[in-house]
Design a protein that fits this description.
Shape: globular
Protein name: Multiple inositol polyphosphate phosphatase 1
Distance between the termini: 30 Å
Strand content: 5-15%
Number of strands: 3
GO molecular function: acid phosphatase activity; bisphosphoglycerate 3-phosphatase activity; inositol phosphate phosphatase activity
Structural class: mainly alpha
Order of helices and strands: HHEHEHHHHHHEH
Largest sheet: 3 strands, parallel
Organism: Funneliformis mosseae
Number of domains: 2
Subcellular location: Membrane
EC number: 3.1.3.62, 3.1.3.80
């Protein structure tokens, strides 16, 4: 949780004029995360950085904050795809996407699986559907440990690019412009954002910051709606 912690510190430094003299008050500053543990922990870490040394607890002056969340099947702001039955019926199981992934799998994933199986003498051939996750593990080791000698070593530079494209296809059709319904998925978030700012400017609310911790698909849906 170091990254969101330092993000909180950086937020107070970068927006010093905004945060000047502001102390935590749940009526003024709202924290919301999705109902996943990692998002909640990230929200807490960000709050620790934001109010670093400005709270009432112990010698470190920690500041406890309230972080709200909704069950994922009711969270139309941070997890709208999961909360929306229509999205699950029409977008997640989009026949056109399944067709594209099948074509891609036969042309790209199957040859990579066959090559790795032969190169490492794997008697039972690797399932081609597992190949994209080798790329995911490769990313993890690069980002967290700066190492390319583990999962990444199984793939050639060309294969790495091809597998990046796998996730691009998937996200384009499930979360972005590949399906017209995705343009609506960020509407609740945007409506809440605009309403909150408008209420503050018109004296209907005292809340000055509405801070949210969600997921990449939360942002992709939001950007697609803009």
């Amino acid at each position: 949780e170091l990254e969101p912690y330092y993000d909180g510190i950086q937020s107070r430094k970068r927006y010093a004029k905004f945060w000047k003299g502001v102390e935590y008050d749940p009526e003024l500053i709202k924290f919301q995360s999705s109902d996943t543990s990692r998002a909640g922990a990230s929200a807490m870490a960000f709050a620790e950085g934001l109010f670093n040394g400005k709270g009432p607890l112990d010698t470190c002056k920690s500041q406890p904050v309230y972080i709200s969340s909704f069950p994922r099947d009711q969270d139309y702001v941070l997890q709208p795809q999961i909360a929306c039955p229509r999205w699950n019926r029409t977008v997640f199981n989009n026949p056109y996407l399944l067709e594209q992934m099948n074509i891609y799998g036969n042309k790209t994933l199957a040859p990579i699986a066959e090559r790795i199986s032969k190169e490492y003498n794997i008697s039972s051939s690797i399932d081609p559907q597992l190949i994209p996750y080798i790329f995911t593990y490769c990313q993890f080791w690069v980002v967290h440990f700066n190492r390319t000698d583990t999962w990444c070593s199984l793939l050639s530079p060309k294969e790495l690019l091809s597998l990046r494209y796998y996730w691009d296809i998937l996200h384009y059709h499930r979360l972005q412009y590949g399906h017209p319904f995705n343009k609506r998925m960020g509407c609740v978030y945007l409506t809440q954002l605009v309403t909150g700012v408008d209420d503050f400017l018109n004296g209907k609310s005292y809340m000055i910051a509405d801070l949210k911790n969600g997921h990449s698909y939360s942002l992709l849906g939001l950007f697609t709606s803009l």
